[in-house]
Amino acid sequence: MMPAFIASVALSAISLLARVFLGLPSPLEKLYNAMTFWLGTPQMFQLVHSLLGFGEAGKIAAFLGSSLLFIGGLTLLGRASILSASLGVGAISLVLLFSSQGLLAIVWAAAYAALYYGIRFVLQPLETDTAKRGTLRTLTGGAVGVLGLGAFGVLQPLLRGSSSAVAAPVANGNLPKLPDGIVSQQDLYYVSINNEALDPRINEETWSLELGGLVKNPQKFKLQELKDQFTPQDLEFTMSCISNPVGGTLIGNCIWRGLRVKDLLEKVGIEAGAKWITWEAADGFYESLPLGQALEDNVLLAYFINGEALNSKHGFPLRVILPGHYGMKQPRWLTKISLSSEERLGYWANRGWSRTAYVQPLSRIDDLPKLKAGEVAKLRGIAYAGIQPIEKVEVSTDGGQTWTNAKLEKRARYAWTRWSLDWTPKSGNQQLVVRCYANGQVQSEEVRDSLPEAASGWQRLNAFVA
């Protein structure tokens, strides 16, 4: 079984490295995608995060689990002849790759089967020669080392740390802060169905945006054509993640530039009967929206953020910007737009998450300075309610018994509202609470997890005043 194990590890490592550095399809990645799809259901998501927290540990566990499952399954094929085992590898690869590669999966499955066969064929003399078992053990260690390097390449972005924050009372000085005003592309939160190493790396020269379905003139557009043929629009807009916990940092305000979806669809023409628009992305993500919403003036296909091109992490070369909705409705690495008469349930909605993903009112304290009794301290934070303007922010310094209106700094229509409050604290333990008002309604006090319609509740912070 040792040669089969070496071949399985080597095949996994080679396919993984080929995926990371060359963009070739990897059966191991597809198994990982299937596992994360299952872990993305609300029930499993809640279980994973209750055990591992809101960081990236869940993705790491899914990757390691899928790797062990893949290698273990291929190793068991070693009980059969080399030819039979190779055919088994081809069949497994075909099943895993078919959904993303179509008929081309046959070619890749044959290639991985041939690679496995070649490795087993080379190792065959070592399997029957007891004098060379030491060489076999050395090769085993080397194969595991190569797989470890490949795994580190995939997991390294995750191991750098998470950009999410756990919703729990914190003491002075431990509060994660959000930038004032505009958030840089480097500081904007990042959430993906993959991890960063497996995200698309798109070449502008070979990329195009395909328009199809119920359109009169199906076309493909290069990025420069989109820039040249359509009037650019700028929009200051706050992006927020549906999985952001109360008081979390999965939110950021940026200035986006791109073209209006409305203008693009007017150019290709809309067929009678078209009611839904579907976005498809290079990472396999997809989402849909009622066509009427997509035709609103504020819906963009963005190629710039804060005056610079989107980087690969945030969707180069093109992503959807959709005010009023959470980020799950706004795919990155856009490759195709199609119109249809029926809804195509989105990637996350298929797992039980919200179909509409409308932003719910939220508020948070961003800056909790060092507090000293009798000295004025300035509390700062943000409030946001999607397309609804923030009307008022109230802060309580006694756990919600009394409330004081904060000073508001209103920005653009679809941007978060900054707030501040001068406070002279007394000594001892204090509990700060913040809430906002939008559309005549106070932000919900109900404590609710982020699944499936976004977290709710008032942020409460414990502070000790010296």
What do you see in this structure?
The structure is a single chain. With 466 residues, the chain is of the alpha+beta class. The protein folds into 3 domains: 2-159, no CATH class; 196-351, Sulfite Oxidase, Chain A, domain 2 (Alpha-Beta Complex), CATH 3.90.420; 362-465, Immunoglobulin-like (Sandwich), CATH 2.60.40.650. 33% of the residues lie in helices and 23% in strands. It is built from 10 helices and 19 strands. The protein has helices spanning 2-22, 27-39, 42-52, 57-76, 82-101, 104-128, 133-159, 223-229, 261-268, 291-294, and strands at residues 209-213, 219-221, 233-240, 251-260, 276-281, 286-290, 300-305, 308-309, 319-321, 334-340, 362-367, 377-384, 390-396, 404-405, 407-409, 417-423, 428-438, 441-442, 459-465. The strands form 4 sheets. Strands 2-1-10-5-6 form a 5-stranded mixed sheet. Strands 3, 4, 7, 8 and 9 form a 5-stranded antiparallel sheet that branches. Strands 13, 14, 17, 18 and 19 form a 5-stranded antiparallel sheet that branches. Strand 7 (300-305) and strand 8 (308-309) form a beta hairpin. Helix 1 (2-22) packs antiparallel against helix 6, helix 2 (27-39) crosses helix 4 and helix 2 (27-39) packs across helix 5 (82-101). The longest helix is centred in the first third of the chain and has 27 residues, at 133-159. The radius of gyration is 26 Å and the shape is globular. The model is unreliable at 157-173 (pLDDT under 50).
